Amino acid sequence: MSLRRWTWLVLTGGCIGLAGVVLVPPVRARALQALRPRVSEADRVAQYGAAARARWQPDFRAAGVPYPPARVVLLAIKSTRTLEVHASATADGPTRRVHTMPILGMSGTLGPKLREGDRQVPEGVYEIESLNPNSLYHLSLRVSYPSLEDREHAAREGRTRLGGDIMIHGGTASIGCLAMGDPAAEDLFILASDVGVARVQVLISPVDFRDPRVSPPTPKPAWMKGRHEELARRMTGLAP
């Protein structure tokens, strides 16, 4: 891509995003964010909510789940570069698959994120910590990496600087995060806002463990075997 087609390249501890016309030297994302007018989550819901909900309605109707649902599971599968949206009508009831969207930008290989700068997308069971209405990547949902389990493994292995700022965001390119494109980011942001971030779970898996034709990757480090088993268990309850 020509440099003149890049608006900026923003480098943070977790992600790199890009878009449009003039290349600006890499700077800390927070420094750029400080220069932009701040808006609230409510502002973004008012701006994008009606259109996003209209896009969701046919999918939820077809799945037989009311909108907004009681809880949501986002399943990201690295090998297929897809993100599945599963939802339930009740807090403890079964989920149904509502929609599948492509992951447009993702770096690294199959395997966990172990340290800052390794370009890896984490693998495991996470939550959505918060929504960022002022993201440089349009809109973003912050994933709870590193989890307590991630920190415990790192402490036992003497690893520090685990990285962070892992997001599900707009745009089409990313390092360490999941870039979904702007319309999909709007849909996910509004869905999470309507449901409540405390009721959104994120599963990031190397492969689709529901598919018997898929050979699971060799777990490295060794403790990833248990994480693969936990992902497979949780994915069994999700519609393929």
List its salient traits.
eight-stranded mixed sheet; 240 residues; two-stranded antiparallel sheet; alpha+beta; L,D-transpeptidase catalytic domain-like; 5 helices; 28% helix
Characterization of the model:
The protein is of the alpha+beta class and 240 residues long. It has a single domain (3-236), classed as L,D-transpeptidase catalytic domain-like (Beta Barrel). It has 5 helices and 10 strands; from the N terminus they run ββααβββββαββαβα. It has helices at 29-34, 41-63, 148-157, 182-195, 224-236, and strands spanning 8-11, 16-19, 71-77, 82-88, 96-102, 124-132, 140-143, 167-169, 178-179, 200-205. The strands form 2 sheets. It has an 8-stranded mixed β-sheet with strand order 5-4-3-10-6-7-8-9. It has a two-stranded antiparallel sheet with strand order 1-2. β1 (8-11) and β2 (16-19) form a beta hairpin. α2 (41-63) crosses α4 (182-195). The longest helix has 23 residues, at 41-63. The radius of gyration is 18 Å and the shape is globular.
